[in-house]
Amino acid sequence: MTGRLPIAKMLAATLALAAAISAVMLSINWDGQEASTAAPKIDDLLNVMIVLSSFVFSLVIVMLFYALWKFKAKPGDESDGEPIHGNTRLEVAWTLIPTVIVLFAAGYSWSVLNAIEKTEGRPLTVDVFSQQYAWSFGYPGKGNKFVEGELHVPVNRQIKFKMHSQDVIHSFWVPEWRVKKDNVPGITTTATVTPDKVGTYQLICTELCGFGHASMRAKVVVEPPAQFRIWVASLKETVPPPYMESIRQDTETNPVEPVGAGGA
Amino acid sequence: MVAAIKQPGWIRGTLGALGGAAFGVGLVVALRAISGLEIWQTEQTGYPHVVVPLITGPLGFLLGFGCFDYWLRWAVGAPTIPEDHSQHGARSWKDYFRFNTDHKVIGIQYICTTFFFFFVGGLMAMLIRAELAQPGMQIVDAGTYNSLFSTHAVLMIFVFVIPVFAGIANYVLPLMIGAPDMAFPRLNALSFWMLPLAGLLFIGSFLAPGGAFDAGWTGYAPLSTGAPLGQSFFNLGVQFAGASSIATALNFLVTIITMRAPGMTFWRMPLLVWANLSTSLLVVAATPFIAGAQFMVLLDRVLGTQFFQFAGGGDVISYQHIFWFYSHPAVYIMMLPGFGIISEVISTHARKPIFGYRLMALALIGIVVLSYSVWAHHMFVAGMFSWLRVPMMITTLLIAVPTGIKIFSWLGTLYFGKIHTYSTAMLFALAFIVTFTIGGISGVMLGMVPIDIHVSDTYFIVAHIHFVLFGGSVFTIFAGIYHWFPKMTGRMYDEKLGRVHFWGTVIGTWGTFIPMHWIGMDGMPRRVADYASQFGDWNLLISVCAFFLGAIQLVFLYNMIVSWRFGPRAEANPWRANSIEWQVSSPPPVFNFDEIPRVVGGPYEFGVPGARHAIMPGEGAEVAEPEPSVVGQA
User: What residues does each domain of chain B span?
Assistant: First the structure.
């Protein structure tokens, strides 16, 4: 069956189309500004997937439109097609090749995941507190200094966020950092990020939390370490008692020290 | 008058609903009085005076309407009503508004009811897009906005996509396997009548103090457990939709396993039958989980149980595990029947046997098995145990393999065929292959943990879900409706209007949902009534395309209504298909077959000289019987 098809030409058309789609897609910065060490790793993964996906999509398009062009019935033709019921080699191929591709994608994703979550140096721990509809932050290594609505972190140092919610689920997202984690009442969730560009960003709540969800934002400032130290020292408040209480009582589902596959 | 009250029907149904509701209120009042509680206090107690009648009222309606008459007589030992087939078949339009046990009538009832909810849900989508056309707040307030997108999703999922497939299969499947009806016709009727009740509960929640449920269709605790009364309408609506779904799935399973015509082995079943077999396996095992999850939320709300209240020792994240253990298989419940429809349409209109029929059937079963092991990919950033992410990522990506097999096999079916594209059904089937490929690709990306961390809960998700559910499921629904319209109504629809609807829908779908990928990756979260002004231009374009997409559906509605009434008469088999439903008249006789047909070959033997799928009664003589004859099971 396949011997009667211009396989080489179809493959060439697929590759050409895939190259064209990839070229356009790769020229666009989809995820926006990169401002953490994780961002380029995630964006590289996305770009590899864009190239692979362009190939798969082009293959489907070429196969579909070639068939429509070549095998369209002439007007008035009431005859049937050829009674071909399948082709074992083709069926094995389109089972095995996608399996290899997705296993590659899984392995690559796994390695990126390990890379972006690896502990580096001495991370700075920051407590994140969320409630309808505001963010606030504590600095346990700096005498539990506390600030509402504005997160400051030093550049080029790994930050470990320990997150707590006082009411419903919220989610912590800084798009430029490519990091997101839900804040869940009753447990401490953790996210790791190393910001590597000085600047001002926005922290966005991405888990529906009520009528004020869309406006639940906070300012994020990444600044040189010296400036950060001055800023922390200038804070007057310390973490208020209810928030200290949630730090104390929330269970940590993913402790830094692994506790075995079964979890704590 | 007394006779009217005694007869099952709308009068008795209304009285039953009122009586049931009164009983519910009375029960709450009496129990509170006995317990020495304040009788009418409601706000702090989760409104039991409303919640209990919301259970007993619909049950009273079902009782009054006659859904349980036969069983109740049997259960109490009273003489049962002799089966005179008076509840079977439709002689006038009024018979579609009665308790009817004919699978064909029930199929039409399902399809019309679900499309009603489709248009109501669509109207909500239009309101959502009107609000989002510009940054800032214009049309609705933030609370109402949350209610709108929650109700939109719930209507579309629970009372459109899932049951419309049950409706199409209800009509087609018994005919297709040569059965006189479904295995349990009375249960079938009960399943249908629970469905409008679910839809009315969802829509009725807008009347509740505090507005309609607004915690999203996912209803995550503790947002849902602390939400106003409307959330209880959702909790209960899901029970009725779920019970309907489970009963129908059991009915399909028994029908498919025990009522196939003699000679129809498993490997001779049309792929639509395979698809519904697979879907039913998912429904019976998975749907109880969402029913349970919503009951637990309801109990947290009304009785003060603490399933999901961390302060009371409950666990917040377990809601998501239970919810997604149903709701991930649910996306396949919403897709597999569509896969079946596409196989029927493509094979028939390409005049070719399905390429790799057995692998196509096995791929469906593979999806069923795998889909139970991927649920936590919805929770990569939820704060669950982090070790669970990688295994769930691998199973999630592997599910692309059987799905890819289906895509390539449909394409393979086209090769060396004689492709006819005059039918709107075939156009939708071909477009489905392309749009669903896009939805599949974005699904693979979402399955990869690092990418998901960035795009989870953004417009990228909204884009993906609409590409698979609108560009996927709804395209297959349109293909199915156009394909079997002549069989169901005995009339032909207008292909010119069908083409207008098709091209409008394709352009509208791409224009609406493709840009959502971009704004999502660029930083726009989902479920927000207001957004940063940098996304304004894209959102305006999306809204314009969405209005166009909505408007073009009116062409479909007009085409269906007018063609049903005035279309040219349809032949028995306008598409020259092989399967059994096309071998009987359009519409089929009330009891489907005078005598059960015999199946002697596969369903897609186009172009095979002398091949037959089924031998209809009275025409058996001229064809040699390749198998030992089997006595009819009727």
Answer: 2-76, 100-566
Contact A81 B146 (CB under 8 A): no
**A79 touching B, CB under 8 A?**
yes
pTM of the predicted model, to two decimals? 0.95
Asked if A238 contacts A226 with a C-beta cutoff of 8 angstroms, the reply is no
pLDDT score at B2: 74
Helix segments in B66-184, DSSP class H: 69-76, 103-132, 142-156, 162-176
Say what the pLDDT of residue B84 is. Answer: 80
The minimal CB distance from B418 to the residues A5, A41, A81 is found for A81
ipTM for the complex shown: 0.94
Confidence bin at B631 (pLDDT 50/70/90):
very low
Name the CATH topology of B100-566: Cytochrome C Oxidase; Chain A (1.20.210)
B351/A80 touch (CB, cutoff 8 Å), yes or no:
yes
Interchain CB contact of A257 with B (< 8 Å): no
CB contact under 8 A, A175 and B146: no
Which sequence spans correspond to the domains of chain A?
A: 2-67+95-117, 124-252
Mean of the pLDDT values across residues A117-145?
Answer: 94
Q: CB of B518 within 8 A of CB of B542? A: no
B-chain residues within 8 Å CB-CB of A206?
456-458, 525-526
Confirm or reject contact between A168 and chain B (CB < 8 A): yes
| Least reliable range by pLDDT among A47-61, A180-194, B86-100, B465-479 | B86-100
Q: What is the pLDDT of residues B16-37, one digit of tens each?
A: 999 999 999 999 999 999 999 8
pLDDT at B624 over 90: no
Q: How far is B320 from chain A (nearest CA, A)?
A: 11
Phi, psi of A147 (to 5 degrees): -145, 145
How many alpha carbons lie under 13 Å from residue B102 in its C-beta half-sphere? 22
Nearest to B143 among A211, A254, A261 (CB): A211
Longest dimension (CA), chain B: 82
Is the Cα dihedral B624, B627, B629, B633 positive or negative? negative
Mutation to test the B interface, candidates A78, A80, A101, most B Cβ within 10 Å: A80
Q: Is 1.20.5.440 the CATH classification of the domain at A124-252?
A: no
